Amino acid sequence: MKLTKKDWIFIAVAVAILATFFLITGKEKTKHVPYDTNHRPYFEVLQKTGNKIEAEKECEECHNDRVIPFPKGHPPKNRCLLCHKMIQPRQ
Question: Which domains does the chain have, with CATH numbers?
Fold first, then answer.
C-alpha cells in the first residue's frame, strides 16, 4: 500500500499532537500534603469518605493570612485538593 499526501498530513498532525502533549506535561510543581500528625486526620477522612471536599473542610483553620500564609499568586484557597495531592506512604 502506497501512502498518499493525505496519509502523510494525517501522520504529521498526529505526531504534532503527541509532541505537544508530551512537551506540556512535565514534572509536578505543586507540593503534596504531608503525612504528619497535623494532616493525618484529613487523610483518614479522605480514606473513609473518598470525598476531597470533606477532607479539605478544615484547611483554612491553619492555612490563612494569620497562621500559615499563602505565597504570592496562590490561587483561590477553598479547593486545596484540586492541586495538592494526598499521598499516603506505603506501610
Answer: 28-91 (1.10.1130.20)
